[in-house]
Specification:
Keywords: Hydrolase, Membrane, Transmembrane, Transmembrane helix. The chain crosses the membrane at residues 7-30, 42-64, 231-251. 50% of the residues are buried. The chain starts with a helix and ends with a helix. 50% of the residues lie in helices and 13% in strands. It is of the alpha/beta class and 370 residues long. The chain has a domain at 80-212 and 293-369: 3-Layer(aba) Sandwich (Rossmann fold), CATH 3.40.50. A hairpin with a 5-residue loop joins strand 1 and strand 2.
Length: 370
């Protein structure tokens, strides 16, 4: 699951539910043992609540989705470079495909890591030089020692990845927060557009604070200061507690519900839903909270008109994390852009409609390199 400001509260509520169910089950069993609650129904209820806490995923996942033919899995490359950064972070950069192919740098969204690009790596690396990297603090990339998780920091990290991508101009592909990083890169390094960067692909992303372009944006904007930001700061301080809550929600299967609601539209496979859920559980809650706070300060509206390279704007037709109107706005203000809508698809259309996604990326990249 991609962590965006609007769904952080949803995740938090399901995590509290998970703790409540476990605590309630233990309490019922204890009271039954002490004979304060008498009868087999109390014993059964308590046992079911505890068992659901640790094994509910094995029931909920088959009920939600059927298995597919090509399910995603963790796939990493043997061709790896580790990039130390001045702030103490170390970037994991992996390479797939022919060395002389058109390089495409894939920047993932906030929450998972570069293994989210399973389908893209398989479907694009036959003709393109596919380069993926883990954002600092996620996957195999070490977090910065100064706790700087700003989008400007990530844009500078992206510039370092471009520097090792080879001699050919690269195409920058960013999903969700990865797209925000690409836009910030364009503002910080405008001289590289057209020379080192041949084009951009912005997928299910936005040009401003994502709170303004998500579903129920008016409500979420009103909750940002009094509720959302305090919860994020609390998560940073109490991250081990939230880490435990996250894994409880993963094991009981409720995490799949939040992943389904925020990222998919119902045509995803069981393996895709399971993989996305596991990836969302692996990220450190403290790191995720810091990055989410950074997104609340994001605004590259004025940058759009300055981007002088071809841009492909892509969005799932039913995306609720970044509604399609955000892509419409970017398409209207980018000087050289085209728009592709993935149907049916939500915020995770890159998995759910992976073939459509790969075909659109391949067509655009071929045009940029011709």
């Amino acid at each position: 699951m991609i962590f965006m400001p609007h769904n952080f509260l949803l995740v938090w509520l399901f995590q509290l539910l998970s703790v409540g169910v476990l605590g309630g089950g233990i309490y019922i069993l204890y009271e039954w043992y002490e004979r304060e609650l008498v009868g087999t129904p109390y014993l059964v209820a308590g046992l079911l609540m505890v068992l659901w806490t640790f094994g509910g995923r094995f029931i909920s996942l088959p009920l939600l989705r059927r298995p597919g033919k090509q399910e995603p899995k963790f796939m990493r490359s043997k061709t790896v470079q580790r990039l130390p950064r001045p702030d103490g972070s170390v970037l994991q950069v992996e390479f797939f495909g022919p060395e002389d192919g058109q390089p495409i740098i894939l920047s993932h969204g906030w929450g998972p890591n570069s293994t989210i690009w399973y389908y893209a790596k398989r479907q694009l690396s036959d003709r393109f030089r596919v380069i993926v990297w883990d954002l600092p603090g996620l996957g195999k990339s070490a977090k910065p020692k100064n706790n700087d998780h700003s989008i400007e920091k990530y844009a500078r990290d992206l510039e370092a990845v471009i520097a090792i991508a080879g001699d050919k101009p690269v195409i920058l592909l960013g999903h969700s927060m990865g797209g925000m990083i690409n836009l910030t890169f364009c503002r910080l390094f405008p001289e590289q557009l057209g020379s080192r960067v041949a084009g951009l692909i912005l997928v299910d992303t936005t040009y401003t604070n994502p709170v303004k372009t998500c579903i129920f944006s008016n409500l979420v904007r009103k909750l940002q200061k009094p509720l959302l930001e305090p919860v994020l700061y609390l998560t940073i301080v109490l991250w081990p507690v939230f880490w435990l809550m996250t894994w409880l929600s993963y094991f009981n299967g409720s995490l799949y519900i939040t992943v389904e609601l925020s990222g998919f539209t119902g045509t995803e496979t069981r393996g895709q839903l399971s993989f996305a859920g596991l990836l969302s559980a692996l990220g450190s809650p403290g790191v995720l909270a810091r990055g989410t706070l950074a997104m609340l300060k994001f605004d590259e509206t004025d940058t759009l008109a300055t981007i002088n390279v071809p841009v492909l704007v892509m969005c799932g037709a039913s995306d609720i994390a970044t509604k399609p109107v955000a892509s419409d706005r970017m398409k209207a203000e980018l000087p050289y852009s085209e728009r592709v809508t993935l149907k049916p698809g939500g915020h995770m259309a890159l998995m759910e409609q992976n073939q459509q996604f790969a075909e659109a990326v391949s067509t655009f990249c071929a045009g940029c390199s011709s």
